[in-house]
Amino acid sequence: MITAYEQLRDLVERARHAPLWPSGSDALGDRARPAAVLILFGVLDSIPSHHEAQHQAVSRDLDVLLLTRATTLRSHPGQVAFPGGRIDPEDDGPVSAALREAREETGVNTSGVEVLGALDPIALPHSSHTVTPVIGWWRRQSPVGVVDEAESQAVWRAPVADLVDPANRVTWVHRRADGAMRGPAWRLTGAGAEQFVWGFTAGILDRLLAALGWAEAWDESRVVSLS
Asked: Which GO molecular function annotation, any one, does this entry have (predicted)?
């Protein structure tokens, strides 16, 4: 049986030749602000999911590291995100930046993280960022938690089985005068509270789960309206 680790490693390799999304490297031109996020999977959690996933690679203890941004932040307050941030001049590229930001935001010991590779950057025109997702595998356990309360209100690990559970999936809709925006979302429990995962983070998770063959059919007509 192929493992989650092997599937993630193979996905990164396939994405070199068949990208999961259009590359945003040149989409924003000179105004692009490069950033990177760490998408860290592992099977080290002692709090497994109650959902029995259809795909054998998705064990009940497989999870991904997430954080909930502080509500006092000007940008995306209270939203769930991957650890990450802008690529600084002293960083040696997206991988270095993603690991540094994860260490600063969650306290994770990055010496226990195996980097499987980076995916194509994604352009976010509204913020002028081009974000490179870095896929990692958590080989050695280390404590994680909120490092700076001004930046994050929670650091938590979402069981992948909960992410593929159709009962947790909804569609977010944001209606505006010029039309409506929509996308995949999740209602989860993390850090002892209900967590709503949507936007950029949910979009990436949705694409990854589908590309890995882990996604399960869900009711996309279940809508949560955002004000």
From this structure: metal ion binding
Q: What is the pLDDT of residues 161-192, one digit of tens each?
A: 999 999 999 999 988 877 788 999 999 999 99
DSSP secondary structure of 28-95: TGGG-EEEEEEEEEES--SS--S---SSTT--TT-EEEEEEE-TT-SSSTT-EE-SEEEPPTTS-SHH
Q: pTM for this structure?
A: 0.95
Give the CA distances from residue 73 to residues 69, 70, 92, 149, 150, in Å, rounded to whole numbers and listed in that order: 7, 6, 27, 10, 8
Which contiguous run of DSSP H or E holds residue 183? Answer: strand 179-190
Packed helices 4-17 and 199-212: angle between N→C axes, nearest 10 degrees: 100
- Domains delineated in the chain: 4-159 (3.90.79.10)
